[in-house]
Amino acid sequence: MTTSHSVPSPTSASAGSVLDGDPRILIPLPEAAERLGISRWQAYKLARSGRLPTTRLGARDLHVPAAVLRRIEQEGLPPAPESDGGEVG
User: In what order do the strands lie in the sheet with 26-28?
Assistant: First the structure.
């Protein structure tokens, strides 16, 4: 078996990932915020806007898929949706 391919195995995240050694599939939103270096408030705001995908467990607990956190580490957050200019703040 050769190791020259560039596709990482599912068990090894990118070098220096905040999730190295963490076997969980879903990370609670407050913990995800801490790992991303943002405030809880910002994490909830991003989740509400759809920029940070979440899954609801139970009635109110939001969790972020670990795969999403890894992708954000590599690529950054997805861009904010463009406003059509119709809303006045």
Answer: 26-28, 61-65, 55-57
The answer to whether the predicted template modeling score (pTM) of the entire model surpasses 0.85 is no
Task: Delimit the domains of the chain by residue range.
Answer: 26-75
Asked if residue 43 lies in contact with residue 29, where contact means CB atoms within 8 angstroms, the answer is yes
Top pLDDT among 61 and 76 is at 61
Q: Which residue has the higher pLDDT, 7 or 56?
A: 56
Tell me the C-alpha distance between 72 and 50, whole Å.
Answer: 14
Rounded to whole angstroms, how far apart are CA atoms 66 and 80?
21
* Closest-CA residue to 63 (of 41, 17, 37, 30): 30
Q: How far is CA 82 from CA 44, 52, 53, 79, 86, in A?
A: 19, 16, 18, 9, 11
The structure tokens listed for 77 are 């957050």
What is the number of residues in the chain?
Answer: 89
